[in-house]
Design goal:
3 strands; elongated; Arc Repressor Mutant, subunit A; 2 domains
């Protein structure tokens, strides 16, 4: 399937309108909600909100959806959680996923299509009046209204504006040495991130009174950081880089002090 604007997939929708989507999804939730973890339900809810422009159809990128959960929901999710949710939803019959490709043949974002609740999932016998009164209530996980659609557009605008503000390495301040920028951009092609890392360099160098060879030391320290991140779990890359820098600059400072002392002997 060719990738494109969400409007191009309108024919994939299984629902007359948003209200029809709401009704079927609530029935799905009564039947399968317990199959999903809390994090997976967050992923599912966000996917639903991205499926309002065309009722029950979404072609947003996984990165866009997961980013929205971090910035717009109370609980952020990972790509693996989202994929796990999609896998469960497919197995349950809730979702159908279509892969798409760009004009050049490369893979693009998937198209997620919600299915109508299957009649076979409803009990064969008509429940009694008492059972009807005691049916579990949904938590309005969907309830997509016109206001929700406005909120979705607002959310997308906020995300797009933030993405536009993320400048690549070519916008890095001239105060940062080009050699440092060229090396770090291989891992973080973001001007703000590069500047934050070099800010740690300048603070650490000043702290240990090092004025020469700062860029070389900064790059060596960053190499050590990358190796550490590659082979172990790191909770804070900035904190780890700060520690590596201090260790290296301290070693240089002690060496300079020793050389000064030796020359005086």
């Amino acid at each position: 399937m060719q990738s494109g604007n969400i409007a191009n997939y309108k024919e994939l929708s299984n629902f007359r309108d948003i209200n029809d989507f709401n009704n079927h999804f609530e029935q799905w939730m009564l039947d399968v909600k317990k199959q999903f973890t809390k994090s997976e339900l967050v992923a599912l809810k966000r996917l639903i909100r991205f499926s309002a422009k065309v009722a029950g159809v979404c072609n947003a990128k996984i990165g866009t959806i997961t980013k929205a959960t971090h910035e717009l929901d109370g609980l952020g999710i990972s790509r693996s959680t989202f994929k796990r949710m999609v896998s469960k939803a497919k197995d349950l019959g809730l979702l159908t996923v279509h892969e798409t490709v760009r004009k050049n043949g490369s893979k693009s974002s998937n198209v997620y299509v919600f299915n109508r609740f299957q009649v076979s999932s409803i009990p064969a016998s008509e429940p009694s009046n008492v059972e009807k009164l005691n049916q579990p209530q949904t938590d309005n996980l969907l309830q997509t209204t016109k206001q929700d659609i406005k909120d979705i557009r607002k959310d997308e605008l906020i995300l797009s504006q933030k993405e536009e503000l993320n400048l690549d390495a070519t916008f890095t301040s001239e105060k940062v040495p080009a050699a440092f920028t060229d090396f770090v951009k291989c891992f973080y092609n973001d001007a703000k991130v590069i500047e934050e890392y070099y800010k740690l360099v300048t603070i650490s160098a000043r702290k240990h009174k090092v004025i020469e060879g700062i860029t070389d030391i900064a790059i060596k320290a960053f190499k050590a950081l990358v190796r550490k991140v590659k082979f172990s779990t790191v909770t804070s890359t900035y904190g780890l880089y700060w520690g590596i820098l201090n260790k290296k600059f301290k070693a240089v400072h002690l060496k300079e002090m020793f050389n000064t002392w030796w020359e005086r002997v």
